[in-house]
Write a structure and sequence with these properties.
nine-stranded mixed beta sheet; binds FE2/S2 (inorganic) cluster; 4Fe-4S; PQQ biosynthesis; oxidoreductase; 374 residues; iron ion binding; alpha/beta
């Protein structure tokens, strides 16, 4: 039986303003072939996106990138989003957040900033981002506090920093963060290219959970700590994006409207650009947004699974990357016929010598090199 729920509006719009970024993170979630999508839509196009999204019913708007501060119209876009009544959120590395821009963003009505760190040590932070940015991030953290924004710190966790989790939590508490997201890398895009270096071992994940729980007890309500474990260590898949085309919509820098950051890689799907159709038409009527809604597209074992409307078959992008079929069960699921690919990656975690597979840092040159290989 088709369990397709009625389609409601998107609640959350993510405006990926640019793929340009001063950092070169080895786990960047921008598409590996970002260099081929280097066009950026204009300020007027973004203003129309914000207006159409709000008319559609969206209530939250995130501005991300790349580094969104590289767009000098960011303040204009935030002001319009605020005027329209969105709750606004800036996701930034901190590079470019001077006190002048912080004042302008405050005046524009920005509600919330999420600042990323790569680690609690300068060495690993700077190594992983391939930049010297650790002290700058500390300064930006203080600037966020001084402007009265709630401080949300985000640290992507993986094998190279997971054993520092104790010091990462301590650093976040010292900097006065209200929220700390310890988000284990999910293996897409650049993190998938570097998975052999980044996937932690099961013991490391367990230790990280123990350390985090001890800190939660100590901190009480002073700081909330979220720890997301890698889905490779789960036996059931995550409800990716809270369901395909269910609550989330992202607009890529060139105006392509997508149900998730990486959906553009899925074969046989077209995603319209803003300007070709309205956001309302794209959300409700486009083939790209409708293809994996509900359950009518499912194959075995999802089709008859009791949990199909709990996780909606997991992640379409992961199914494509690991099973070669975007309509397959997410291989993270223990019921997937190819679950062994996930088990094999887990069994190898921690054993790959860096000389075999050098770590690939995100850059336009590497993007062009990798897109020739795939
Ligand atoms: Fe694309 Fe999960 S990341 S559906």
């Amino acid at each position: 039986m088709d369990m397709t729920p009625p389609v409601g509006p998107p609640l959350w719009i993510l405006a990926e303003l640019t793929y340009r970024c001063p950092l070169h993170c080895a786990f960047c979630y921008n598409p590996v072939d970002f260099a081929r999508h280097d066009q950026e839509i204009s300020t007027d196009d973004w203003l129309r996106v914000l207006q159409q999204g709000r008319a559609l019913g969206a209530v939250q708007c995130g501005f991300s990138g790349g580094e969104p501060l590289l767009r000098d119209d960011l303040e204009v876009l935030v002001a319009e989003a605020h005027r329209l009544g969105y709750y606004t959120n800036l996701l930034t590395s901190g590079v470019g957040l001077t006190s002048r821009r912080a004042d302008a963003l405050k005046a524009a009505g920005l509600d919330h900033i999420q600042l990323s760190f790569q680690d609690s040590t300068r060495e690993i932070n700077d190594f992983l981002s391939h930049t010297r940015t650790f002290e700058l991030k500390e300064r930006v953290a203080r600037l966020i506090k001084d402007n009265g924004w709630p401080m949300v710190m985000n640290v992507v966790i993986h094998r190279l920093n997971i054993d520092h989790i104790d010091r990462i939590i301590e650093m976040a508490a010292d900097l006065g963060a209200e929220y700390l997201e310890l988000a284990n890398a999910q293996y897409y895009a650049w993190a998938q290219v570097n998975r052999a270096h980044l996937l932690p071992t099961r013991e490391q994940v367990q230790r990280a959970e123990d350390v985090t729980n001890a800190w939660r007890q100590r901190l009480g309500d002073k700081m909330r700590v979220f720890l997301v474990v890698p889905d490779y260590y789960e036996s059931r898949p995550k409800k990716c994006m809270n369901g395909w085309g269910n609550v989330f919509l992202t607009v890529a820098p060139d105006g392509t409207v997508l149900p998730c950051h990486t959906a553009r890689m899925l074969p046989g799907l077209e995603f319209p650009k803003v300007g070709e159709m309205t956001l309302r038409e794209i959300w409700f009527e486009s083939e790209g947004f409708n293809r994996y809604r509900g359950s009518s597209w499912m194959k075995d074992p999802c089709r008859d699974c009791d949990e199909r409307e709990k996780d909606w078959g997991g992640c379409r992008c992961q199914a494509y990357m690991l099973a070669g079929d975007p309509a397959a069960a997410d291989p993270v699921c223990a019921k997937s016929p190819v679950h062994q690919v996930v088990e094999a990656a887990v069994a190898k975690a921690g054993s790959v010598a860096s000389s075999e597979h050098p770590l690939v840092f995100r850059s336009a040159d590497q993007s062009r090199r990798l897109q020739r290989m795939f």
